Amino acid sequence: MIIGLFLLVVLSFIHLTQGQADYTVSQLLKEVWVEGRIQDIVLSLRLPRLAIGILAGGALAVAGAILQTLTNNPLASASTLGINAGAYFFVVVSMIFFPTFLGDFPFLIALAGAVLSSVLVVVLAGKQMEPVRVALTGMIISLLFASMTGSLQLLFENQTNGLFLWGSGTLVQLNWSGVTFAGPMIVVLFIAVLGIAKPMDILSLGEDVASSLGQNVRFVKLLAWAAAILLAATTVSVVGPIGFIGLMAPHIVRMLGVRGHLQIFLQSFLWGAVMMIGADVLGRLIQPGQEVPVGAMTALAGGPWLLYLAWRTAKSHTKGDRQMGGTLKPVKLPVVISIVTVLIVAVFVLAFSYNGMAWSLDWMKPVVWNFRVPRVLTAFIIGVMLALAGVLLQGVLRNPLADASVLGVTSMGGAGAMLLLVALPAIPVQYMPLGAVVGAAIALGIIMLTAWKNNFQPMLVALMGIAISAFGSAATQVFVVKAKLAVAAALVWLSGSTYGKGWEDVQLSLLLLVLLIGPAVYLTRSLDALTFGDDVAAGLGLSVKSTRVWALIVGVAISTAGVAIVGTIGFVGLVAPHIARRLVGFRHLPLLVVSGLLGGLLLVTADFVGRILIAPKDIPSGLIVALIGTPYLLYLLRKMK
Fold first, then answer.
1. Res 276: pLDDT
2. What is the rounded average pLDDT for all residues in the chain?
3. In which band, very low, low, confident or very high, does the pLDDT at 485 lie, cut at 50, 70 and 90?
4. Quick one: 356 exposed, middle or buried, by C-beta within 10 A (0-12, 13-18, 19+)?
5. Which of 557, 269, 568 is nearest to 441 (CA)?
6. Distance (Å, rounded) from C-alpha 604 to C-alpha 625?
7. Would you state the pLDDT for residue 340?
8. Strand, coil or helix: what is 98?
9. Which of 429, 566, 572, 623 has the most crowded CB, counting CB atoms within 10 A?
10. CA triplet 19, 23, 29: central angle to 5 degrees?
11. What InterPro entries does the record point to (predicted)?
12. Burial group, residue 455, by CB count within 10 angstroms (0-12, 13-18, 19+)
């Protein structure tokens, strides 16, 4: 506690001297007490920023400590459970459609989003709150809200322009209004949290033990959830969605040997404040005179920390041999292929003939042949590729919730593309795919390095993917802010769009599909053996480690190729294999064929709907896929044992 307080005081003095108006610590100590330039700067700008940083850091850390106990999940925090993403989405929606209401009630808007995300996590994760399931559920909910938020920012760029910096998390304060609003609420909630510290100690022993000791478990959990959500919503409404503080601070406190929730909450508040102010100080040291979002700095520190926690969590669990599911009475493959092919032809005819305002069956017209036809064909081929990648990655991880977006490949691809745009602002947007390939390769490299010694244990790879994805998403948001003038073009690509695709894209995507489909088909028999578990597969003579390595490489290569051409489209690789598994069972060769066709059908349908819904404007395909696929995916999550 003494060390933490000392660090906070030192960092606070440094923090108060940073900014465009330059003065030293000694000048600050001498002149802040008398009227003049330094007193005006400190009281009107820098002290409010320092105060909100301390309050926000403490609030997020305490919320994280509560959520980790409630979900029995060391990876839980307001950011990893989707609470921040839900609050941010509601703020963006309100900024576009109800700007007056947002100005009057920012806290209520953020609270509504935070509550919705929390309810979704609790309902979908189930009563057992199994750590990996909770983490995956939070990941998918975050993906949903993030895709919708990005698309709305693209469609309503003028209305949401002021939210880019705030959306990356910033402590900038122009007056004391943020502190006077958030301060009393955070203080009152913190005192209330200290009041439930003893019941939380009992709850941490297990619900059965707590009930036998006479505790009203449901009431205590309800109070704790309410406190965590209110703390997160209050913070998001003032400083934006800042991640990783709520994840790191409670862990550091526990690693220091602190026990008992009263001390954990007190120390978490202190160390959360230290980390928040330290991140803001570091951001302004790295780039003096410019505003680096504090969310960027917490993401840089928090990404590796989350990777470490994911690795430790997976190591503490036994190997998972989860069944992939699928029908026991598969429909005959020719019947399924015939029906899906008819649907594809029907959607193709619609997509070629209708532009949202007028019908035309003359497909050879230059405007149709040169723009609409290649766009539809590109969407189909990319949909096939994303679905194939989903089948491979779900097979290798024995996890029906795995795909490129959950493994962090999509997220890091987006971050790599945006980094290229920020580092080389003169480079044309057409070169963004190069950055995506590098980002995806880094994600694959991290997974390979961390999982090699553990024989690519499915749970470890899945948790690593969640950590990489969270880091990539945070970094992407920061790069969007830094890109400034290129934001619109970047957001089109990040939302996943087939807009403006020509015959060159058709040729490139077809070439990549032909090159990569062979290795995917070759791996199907090995993946069939893996469905029976590692021990049985090894007994049948299969090299489990090499199979996992090659399936990961091929799956990531296919998804990276798709991402490089159309941007970060998620959910196709999740949804298509699920539907296929319920039609043709779990054997991977028929599953690969049907999933590919369904993926192509899904993306062409999404592209067509996005093109005609608010014609002549375009809605990115990634948003439509998320809106189509997420309800189905959430339904599956609820059903999964």
1. 92
2. 81
3. very low
4. middle
5. 557
6. 10
7. 92
8. coil
9. 572
10. 115
11. ABC_BtuC-like, ABC_transptr_permease_BtuC
12. middle
